[in-house]
């Protein structure tokens, strides 16, 4: 029972560690994109392991004191490690955005000189300024 409890606690810790990066971005942010990714988890699984069971029966073999050796395949529960494919949703900033804390910020390849970047490669200029990078007065 203690071994099973330890396994559940360990699985919970691993799950929280794996989920932490996915929970850092706000999923309601329209600039957050997500996709499903697969990953492998090592699990312990039980299976029926065959083995040769020897038994004796009475027979007419006088040289073996009327005992004959017989074989039958029996099964016992054994354990092995296996790989299980799991899936998780991975959040990341959409193309044209970069991660800053919990938000996805638009990326302008040219600095917005007199303005601010409002979407990928789009500057919103201060009054009296224009151009793609807000440098024209």
UniProtKB/TrEMBL annotation:
**Per the record's keyword annotation, is Iron included, yes or no?**
no
Q: Name one GO cellular component term.
A: plasma membrane
Q: Which PROSITE patterns match?
A: EGF_1 (PS00022), EGF_2 (PS01186), EMI (PS51041)
The protein's superkingdom reads Eukaryota
Recorded topology in the membrane:
Single-pass membrane protein
What are the subcellular locations of this protein? Cell membrane; Membrane
- What keywords are assigned to this protein? Cell membrane, Disulfide bond, EGF-like domain, Glycoprotein, Membrane, Repeat, Signal, Transmembrane, Transmembrane helix
The name on file for this protein is: Multiple epidermal growth factor-like domains protein 11
- Report if keyword Hydrolase is assigned: no
Q: Where is the EMI domain?
A: 29-106
Q: Which residues form the signal peptide?
A: 1-24
Q: Which residues form a coiled coil?
A: none
